[in-house]
Design goal:
Blueprint lengths: L2 H13 L1 H7 L3 E4 L6 E2 L3 E4 L10 H16 L11 H18 L19 H4 L54 H21 L8 H8 L5 H13 L4 E6 L11 E3 L4 E8 L6 H17 L3 E8 L3 E8 L17 H9 L7 E4 L15 E6 H4 L10 E5 L2
Parallel strand pairs: 1-3, 6-7, 6-9, 9-10, 10-11
Antiparallel strand pairs: 2-3, 4-5, 7-8
Helix pairs in contact: 1-2, 1-3, 2-6, 3-4
Length: 392
């Protein structure tokens, strides 16, 4: 391995709290490809003959590129997308962030102003379909296509479950759990972010991208459905026909049949919640009602205490009178759930998250629903449960 690659990794670790914290999670490994690649555990490094004309700064830039593929979740967010098309989209997004942070990339690195400040998910549908003509093994020049083809660039996103290195371990490696690897990188980026903030060196233009990684960007109704399916089993759900109430919004949820659905909904009615927020919260409550044919919703309104508690079924109207408007504490709601013996139910809490949390959380089905504009100035982590952005 070219010694300059090792020096470049050390340079990142010593000089940059954010990127240095991230790259320590990746082991450098030789491989037969002619460029760099990663599988989330290793950065595969080419023979030095392929990079002899690269400057030291360009090598540092490429190591940061591969590191961001991991930290940015590009290995885990592809889903059913075309691999090469997704790789290209991820490269465009990554290279924009790197250049904004003063990294130098080798000649031919993908860059296009029309994709600036876009995530891979936004770039992907704008790219032409099909392969880019390379061997998909780490080879390629980085040259642009003819407009109807993908740019000719290397495929540097590799399968986390495969070791592409020259020296395959003779002893069996512990099989990687991709979900665990993804979670490790989410924890890693949170740690890196904390280090950078503590030293006043938060990377430019990164906050929004980091929120994209740490906060789920799916319809919260789908998340609730998944949880209920897991908790109740699949017997109460049918995949087809879809729930007709949501097809016009391009949300294809399974239909529900069988048992009663019971869920806790809590509205943050503190002074920090705007009138428009409350209107949206009540609208989302009605959305829950429209999902199910038969339901019991335990509806709470809370600020520093539980201001009201209503039990709503399909025969009841949803209250529209707001009570509260004081400070914010989430403790009273969870204390009340214990009193009412509702702690085993899923909890949907609409809030800006600007309040006190209980020390001893109950249950694992807690979903904190927050509007997009509240994320820009509010909390992005909670001690328990899952933050879900309401799609505005």
């Amino acid at each position: 391995m070219d010694k300059r690659i090792v020096k470049a990794k050390i340079h990142l670790m010593v000089t940059n709290p954010f990127w240095g914290s991230l790259i320590t999670r990746l082991e450098l490994k030789d491989w037969n490809g002619d460029t760099f690649a990663t599988n989330g555990r290793y950065i595969y490094c080419p023979d030095k003959k392929y990079i002899e004309n690269w400057t030291d700064k360009e090598i540092v830039g490429v190591l940061a590129h591969e590191t961001w593929h991991c930290a940015g979740g590009h290995l885990f967010r592809m889903g059913n997308k075309e691999l090469m098309r997704w790789n290209v989209a991820s490269d465009f997004a990554t290279n924009y962030l790197l250049t904004k942070n003063s990294f130098i990339l080798p000649e031919g690195a993908l860059s296009d102003i029309k994709y600036d400040a876009m995530t891979p998910e936004k770039i992907y549908p704008l790219l032409p379909k099909g392969k880019n003509g390379n061997k998909n093994d780490g080879e390629g020049t980085g040259e642009s296509g003819n407009g109807n083809e993908l740019p000719n660039c290397p495929q540097d996103l590799k399968d986390p479950e495969k070791n592409e290195g020259k020296e395959k371990n003779k002893s069996k490696e512990t099989k990687i759990n991709i979900k665990e690897l993804e979670q490790e990188w989410k924890e890693g980026i949170t740690t890196a972010l904390e280090k950078a903030r503590s030293q006043g060196s938060l990377p430019s233009s990164m906050e929004e991208y980091i929120n994209e990684i740490l906060i789920p960007k799916v319809n919260w109704q789908e998340i609730l459905f998944r949880y209920l399916q897991t908790a109740k089993g699949t017997a109460d759900y049918v995949s087809y026909p879809f729930n007709r109430m949501h097809i016009h919004r391009e949300i294809f949820l399974p239909s529900l049949q069988g048992e009663m659905i019971e869920v806790v909904c809590s509205l943050d009615t503190s002074g920090s919640i705007s009138k428009n927020d409350l209107i949206r919260y009540f609208s989302e409550i009605r959305g829950i009602c429209s999902m199910f044919g038969s339901y019991i919703i335990h509806l709470f309104q809370c600020d520093t205490k539980v201001q009201s508690y209503d039990i709503i079924t399909e025969d009841d109207e949803i209250p529209n009178l707001v009570t509260g408007r004081g400070g914010t504490s989430f403790i009273p709601l969870f204390d009340r759930l214990l009193e009412e013996q509702l702690e085993e139910l899923p909890v949907v809490y609409f809030s800006d998250l600007d309040g006190d949390f209980p020390e001893n959380p109950i249950g694992n089905g807690v979903f904190w629903l927050i509007r997009k504009d509240q994320l820009s100035y509010g909390r992005t982590e909670v001690p328990f449960g899952t933050i879900v952005e309401i799609d505005d």
